[in-house]
């Protein structure tokens, strides 16, 4: 049973979109949460103490006094439903709930297509952005562009946790050098997102990811040239 007098602990990596989605939720709800940095690219997620709590050794990871969650979508929904159940960040009617979940599932698609580009570089397997993977990602961005047309947010006429999940991914896409200018609706949505509490922290994480990505590309090229 969760002790409501104990504050939750979140392990996170600022460069990662799932972690930043949770951070955006925390900032918007003004929650008191203990934050622990856990950078997977430094293998900090393999620490035995962390793995004993989280066998998946992934971030974000929430420990709410013994209640553990490893999926960012589950974490953001849990935080809103338990800490601010009347919040407009989640749906309340059956249709609002269904549409929110629909967009969160879409976020998974967007995240994995972005990850297919970034992960090989960070792991030392790639030296650039493959055209086929970029094309695949652009097809999904075209859908997001339609979702946010005419001043809309991702899942409602106001921002919700669906925007908190999409924003970190899109800003990471920008940070690694992919062109976004063709998506006029997304660019306008990004401007609207500047009003969201935690936006600057998200931008900091995206910048860090861009720097890490570009650094790894140069390192991978040097290694390939020596081979």
Automatic annotation (TrEMBL):
Keywords: Transferase
Domain GST N-terminal: 6-87
PROSITE patterns per the UniProt record, alphabetical: GST_CTER, GST_NTER
Catalysed reaction equations from the record: RX + glutathione = an S-substituted glutathione + a halide anion + H(+)
Keyword DNA repair: no
SUPFAM superfamilies: GST C-terminal domain-like, Thioredoxin-like
Gene Ontology process terms (BP): glutathione metabolic process
InterPro entries, per the entry: Glutathione-S-Trfase_C-like, Glutathione-S-Trfase_C_sf, Glutathione_S-Trfase, Glutathione_S-Trfase_N, GST_C, Thioredoxin-like_sf
One Gene Ontology term of the molecular function aspect: glutathione transferase activity
Pfam families in the cross-refs: GST_C, GST_N_3
UniProt-listed Gene3D superfamilies: 1.20.1050.10, Glutaredoxin
Listed EC numbers: 2.5.1.18
All residue ranges annotated as the GST C-terminal domain in the record: 93-217
Family of this protein: Belongs to the GST superfamily. Theta family.
Oligomer and partners: Homodimer.
Name of the protein this chain belongs to: glutathione transferase
Species of origin: Culicoides sonorensis (Biting midge)
């Amino acid at each position: 049973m969760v002790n409501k007098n104990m504050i939750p602990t979140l392990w996170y990596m600022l460069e990662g979109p799932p972690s930043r989605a949770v951070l955006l939720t925390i900032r918007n709800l003004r929650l008191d949460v203990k934050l622990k940095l856990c950078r997977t690219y430094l293998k900090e997620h393999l620490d035995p103490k962390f793995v004993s709590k989280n066998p998946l050794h992934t971030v974000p990871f929430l420990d709410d006094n013994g209640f553990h969650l490893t999926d960012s979508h589950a974490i953001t929904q849990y935080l809103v439903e338990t800490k601010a159940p009347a919040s407009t960040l989640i749906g309340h009617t059956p249709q609002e709930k269904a549409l929110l979940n629909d967009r969160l599932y879409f976020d998974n698609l967007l995240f994995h297509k972005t990850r297919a580009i970034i992960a090989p570089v960070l792991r030392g397997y790639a030296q650039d952005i493959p055209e086929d993977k970029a094309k695949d990602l652009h097809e999904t961005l075209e859908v997001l562009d339609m979702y946010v047309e005419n001043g809309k947010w991702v899942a409602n006429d106001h921002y919700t946790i669906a925007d908190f999940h999409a924003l970190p991914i899109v800003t990471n896409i920008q940070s690694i050098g992919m062109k976004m200018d063709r998506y006029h609706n997304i660019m306008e949505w990004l401007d609207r997102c500047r009003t969201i509490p935690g936006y600057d922290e998200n931008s900091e994480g995206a910048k860090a990811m861009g720097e890490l990505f570009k650094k790894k590309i140069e390192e991978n090229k040097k290694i390939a040239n020596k081979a």
